[in-house]
Amino acid sequence: MLVIFDCDGVLVDSERISNGVLARLLAAEGLAMTAAEARREYQGLLLADIVRDVEERLGRPLPAGWLARYERERAAAFRRELEAVPGAAENVAWIAAQGVAVCVASQGKLEKTRLSLELTALSHLFADGALFSAEAVPRGKPHPDLFLHAARVMGAEPAACAVVEDTPSGVAAAVAAGMRALGFAADSDEAALRMAGAETFRSLDQLPALLALA
C-alpha cells in the first residue's frame, strides 16, 4: 500500500494563510475578494490558472513580478504563522511504522512543500524522493498525472494507493487515477468532496481505521 498525502490543508494549515495573502494582493490590484472568497474560487488550482483567471476578471495583465511577490509574501507569512494540521505528525508516523509507504503530492512547487514541512516539523516523515509536484507532469489536478507519477516512482500500483485530499479537484484526480480517495473534510466542503468521489472523514486520527491498519 502507498498513502499519498496532499500537503496544503491536509498536512499543514496553510490555506487560510495563502488565501489571506492572495486576497490582500488582489485587492491592491482592484479585485476585491475576501480570503474566504479566494479560497472558494481558487483552492486546489495551479498558480498559473489563478493568474489567468484573475487577469480575465481584471481585463488586463497583472504587473510584472506580481506572482513572485505573492510567493515571497506567502513564504514570509508561512514563517510567521504556519502550523501542522492536528494529528498529522502522529498519524503519518504511525502509518509509516506499520510498513506502509507514504509520500506527498502537491500542486505547489517542491520548494514550497519542503518549506511547509520544515516549518511544521514534518519533513523527517518523508524522504526527499517521496515529495512530488505538479510541475513534474504535463497536467496538474484534477487530472491523474501527478498521482500516477508519484505511484510509479514509489513502485506502487494505482489500485494499491490511497490519496488523502481536501479539495474536489484533488479527489477527482485520485478517482481518475484509479486510486482510493479519502476526503479530509475538517475545513473543506464535505458534500463537494463526496460528489467528487471521496470517502470523507473529519480528523486525521481516523486515518488508521480507514486504512484498515488499526
SSE arrangement:
Layout: E1 2-5, H1 15-28, H2 35-42, H3 47-58, H4 66-81, H5 88-97, E2 101-106, H6 110-119, E3 131-133, H7 145-154, E4 161-165, H8 168-176, E5 180-184, H9 190-196, E6 199-201, H10 207-210
Parallel strand pairs: 1-2, 1-4, 2-3, 4-5, 5-6
Helix pairs in contact: 1-2, 1-4, 8-9
Approximate shape: globular
The helix fraction, in percent, is 40-55%
> Mind telling me the C-alpha Rg?
17 Å
> What structural class results from the helix and strand content?
alpha/beta
Q: Write the CATH homologous superfamily of the largest domain.
A: HAD superfamily/HAD-like
Which architecture of the largest domain per CATH?
A: 3-Layer(aba) Sandwich
Strand content: 5-15%
Give structural notes.
The chain is of the alpha/beta class. It has two domains: 2-13 and 83-210, HAD superfamily/HAD-like (Rossmann fold); 15-81, DNA polymerase, domain 1 (Orthogonal Bundle). It contains ten helices and six strands; from the N terminus they run βαααααβαβαβαβαβα. The chain has helices at 15-28, 35-42, 47-58, 66-81, 88-97, 110-119, 145-154, 168-176, 190-196, 207-210, and strands at 2-5, 101-106, 131-133, 161-165, 180-184, 199-201. It has a six-stranded parallel β-sheet with strand order 3-2-1-4-5-6, with helices on both faces. Helix 8 links the parallel strand 4 and strand 5. Helix 1 (15-28) packs across helix 2 (35-42), helix 1 (15-28) runs antiparallel to helix 4 (66-81) and helix 8 packs parallel to helix 9. The longest helix has 16 residues, at 66-81. The model has no long low-confidence stretch (mean pLDDT 95).
